[in-house]
Amino acid sequence: MPDPLSAESKADFSTIYTQTDPRGYFRTLRLLDYQVPQHAKPVIEAALEASGNRTVLDVCCSYGINAALLRLDVDLETLGARAADPARVGLDPESVITSDAAFHAEHLRRPDLTVLGLDASAPAIDYGVRTGLLANGWAEDLESTAPSPALATGLRDVGLVVCTGGVGYVGRDTFARILGAVGAPQQLRLAVFVLRVFDYTEISAVFEPYGLVTEKLPGTYRQRRFADRGEQDAAVHDVRARGLDPTGKEAAGWYHADCWLTRPVTAAPVRIPPAAG
């Protein structure tokens, strides 16, 4: 993953995104009660139903966690417990990939749903594709370069873009380049979960020229516990600097995210379950 674009201080977990499989990812994040993908699932499913398009792009997809929750009959706890099982520590990566591919095939419930992945980590993308979670994926940094021809072609049929923690690693340029490649951007929907330490205004402004409207859902969604006091103090500082109240959220030891939904201005708002945070 590239360095965060802003926020005063955030724990560096870059190494867990560049391993061959997600065992290290889950071992690390489960200790911090990482949970936002599970909270995001009903929101994404509602946006997907409203879209009527079965092709989803997951931005900063890592190992395809959102794809797993959307396409398989498993939850985040099941995925995490399996990956972090001490019995799997000694397995070589190829054995893990083979085993996980079989597990994913066994639990597949939405074979008609196409999830594409975009992430800076080539190993994470490779895992998601090889284990059947992602129909295709690209390890590209759209903050610095335009989409490759292969990625631009792959984005043409996308109807829903999701992101459950990537803002701060990616920003305005990434989303602008995605919309520039999508075949029908005026019909696009987005469901983006943004930590409250980050401002989404500049990104959401990218969507307006396409006739899209962006709205923030009520409430917030817990992402994970802070790694240490320094990270918490920095987050409390950042949300206060944005004019937000950290009481019961960052001050209580948790990163919280807002959910921003983007839809065609002519479309009705999506009915969304209440926030879990």
Task: Provide an overview of this structure.
With 277 residues, the protein is α/β, with parallel strands linked by helices. It has a single domain (14-264), classed as Rossmann fold, CATH 3.40.50.150. Helices cover 34% and strands 17% of the residues. The chain has helices at 23-30, 36-51, 65-71, 76-83, 93-106, 122-130, 149-154, 172-181, 201-204, 229-241; strands at residues 55-59, 114-119, 136-139, 160-163, 189-195, 212-216, 221-225, 254-264. Strands 1, 2, 3, 4, 5, 6, 7 and 8 form an eight-stranded mixed β-sheet that branches. The longest helix is centred in the first third of the chain and has 16 residues, at 36-51. The two termini are 26 Å apart.
| Total number of beta strands | 8
Show unreliable segments.
none
List the domain count as a whole number. 1
Oligomer: single chain
Rounded Rg: 18 Å
Beta-strand content: 15-25%
CATH fold assignment: Rossmann fold
CATH superfamily: Vaccinia Virus protein VP39
Report how far apart the termini are: 26 Å
Order of helices and strands: HHEHHHEHEHEHEHEEHE
What's the CATH class, please?
Alpha Beta
Helical amount: 25-40%
Helix and strand composition category: alpha/beta
Biggest sheet details: 8 strands, mixed
Query: Overall 3D geometry?
Result: globular
**pLDDT averaged over residues:** 95
> Under the CATH scheme, which architecture would be assigned?
3-Layer(aba) Sandwich
What is the tally of helical segments?
10
